[in-house]
Design goal:
Elements lengths: L1 H35 L2 H18 L2 E7 L12 H17 L3 E6 L4 E6 L4 E6 L2 E13 L9 E12 L12 E5 L10 E5 L13 H15 L2 H7 L4 E7 L6 H12 L2 E4 L8 H9 L5 E6 L4 H8 L7 H13 L5 E7 L17 E4 L5 H12 L7 H10 L4 H8 L8 H18 L1
Helix pairs in contact: 7-9, 10-12, 11-13
The protein binds adenosine-5'-triphosphate and magnesium ion.
């Protein structure tokens, strides 16, 4: 058995060697042809070969370029982005070679398939081969200082009849990259899987409903915006102390309509032209959020440099750029320091709706009690109602104190825990 195996592998080695020699000869002849035969003849020959092989080739092959090309060469193709989003979770399961990118403040890793990698996918019973090909092309519109542009193209091959396959859209969270070299990716993306919805938000129910109504009216208002001659965009300013639910609100907004979120980090933007490119490369049906930096001193220092973008610069770019497009866009700016903002920056039209996210009220507490403890009423609710009106406590603190700390989830103990915390805050105040 041993001998047979060795014998087999030897003959297999011979076959491979012979095959390798044959391929080598063909490549050699092909290189010679390329050198001595005019280009239009080789093109004609390869077109003929393609046509001949097409008879026996049972697949359809479609390529999607990363960039749209033409004058708008920096604009990422929407089809490419959609496919990348669709393949993201599949790549990490199916591909053998993955590329990892660190995103979102060095906290998350985003995976995608590596160049020249291929994965096989089953879509509604149709077998599809996806591959990521890196092609180097000369783009005549780019100046000679940067003559070469690496384009990536995702191509799909599938058996004929498997055309309708890009569905299952998940929300994506995009973060801008702090790399200013030529050819870098403007936005990195990960699947956005935050579980929060408006139902989870602890706030005055009337206020919550008002915000939902405002959003729904906006999202259905395409014709109306056209009629009144305004671009179809809406700006929200969320302000309030830390831990009052501003970031959670943005997540809930995105979930409400399945909008993508673009998280804009101004410090990573080198200047206004890059900012324009970034905003130009956001999709419609998206929310762009700019959260004010906590480290304010540092931001002020940095924004004094010529190349850095300031908040007013950002708002001006948004005014100019998004006024020219007719697609629905939401811009959300959050801050803990609304009183320090220049009123001109947050005037209506720029920030259409100002929403105060305030300390936790009794109605907010009731949302937490229902979600965390399945309680709609309890004898301790009255004590909590009085205390919560007397102190300034963020919803984040209420949530933390109400969270069960034991497997049994003893509701009484949780409520008492919260009462203790509220009394402590009252004493300290
Ligand atoms: N109004 C709220 N409803 C429900 N949960 C909330 C609310 N506010 C805060 N939380 C809870 O507290 C955590 C922190 O909230 P969030 O990040 O939304 O606050 P924030 O206002 O954005 O704070 P910061 O100003 O520090 O950015 C959330 O993960 C959430 O669990
Ligand atoms: Mg926040």
């Amino acid at each position: 058995m041993d001998i047979k195996l060795r014998k087999m592998s030897k003959s297999m080695g011979d076959i491979l060697m012979g095959f390798g020699t044959l391929i080598g000869s063909i490549m050699f002849v092909y290189t010679m042809i390329q050198q001595f035969v005019p280009e239009y003849v080789t093109r004609y020959l390869s077109a003929c070969i393609c046509r001949i092989t097409a008879f026996a080739y049972p697949y359809i092959e479609i390529s999607f370029d990363e960039f749209t090309g033409g004058g708008d060469w920096l604009k990422v193709s929407k089809a490419y982005t959609a496919i990348e989003a669709y393949l993201g979770p599949k790549s990490s399961k199916l591909a053998k070679r993955l590329k990892a990118r660190i995103v979102k403040g060095n906290k998350d890793l985003a995976f995608s398939m590596d160049d020249d990698e291929e994965i096989v996918d089953d879509f509604a019973g149709v077998k599809i081969w996806w591959s990521l090909d890196k092609t180097t092309t000369f783009d005549a519109q780019i100046s000679s200082a940067a003559p070469r542009d690496d384009h990536r193209a995702i191509s799909k091959s599938c058996h004929q009849g498997g055309e309708n396959m890009i569905e299952n859209r998940h929300i994506r969270l995009y973060s801008n990259n702090a790399n200013h070299e030529y050819g870098y990716k403007l936005w990195s993306q990960v699947a956005f899987e935050h579980p929060v919805t408006f139902d989870h938000l602890a706030m005055d129910p009337a206020k919550k409903q008002e915000i939902i109504d405002d959003l729904v009216t906006f999202s259905m208002g395409r014709d109306y915006y056209l009629k009144i001659g305004k671009p179809w965009k809406r700006g929200y300013l969320l302000y309030g102390p830390p831990g009052t639910g501003k970031s959670s609100m943005i997540a809930a907004m995105a979930k409400l309509f399945n909008y993508d979120i673009y998280d804009l980090e101004l410090r990573a933007v080198s200047g206004n032209s890059e900012l324009k490119q970034l905003l130009h490369n956001t999709s419609n049906k998206s929310i762009t959020k700019k959260e004010e930096d906590k480290d304010k001193d540092k931001e002020d220092e940095e924004s004094n440099g010529d190349s850095k973008v300031t908040l007013s610069g950002l708002l001006n770019v948004i005014d100019g750029l998004w006024s020219a497009c007719s697609k629905e866009r939401i811009f959300v700016f959050t801050t803990n320091y609304v009183e320090e903002l220049d009123p001109a920056l947050i005037r209506r039209g720029r920030m259409d709706k100002h929403i105060e996210m305030s300390y936790c009220c009794f109605e907010g507490f009731k949302v937490f009690a229902k979600i965390y403890l399945d309680l709609e009423s309890h004898e301790l609710f009255d004590t909590i109602r009085h205390l919560i009106h007397e102190v300034k406590v963020s919803p984040a603190d209420v949530a933390e104190n109400l969270m069960p700390k034991t497997i049994e989830r003893d509701s009484q103990a949780c409520l008492q825990n919260l009462i203790k915390a509220l009394e402590k805050i009252k004493e300290d105040e």
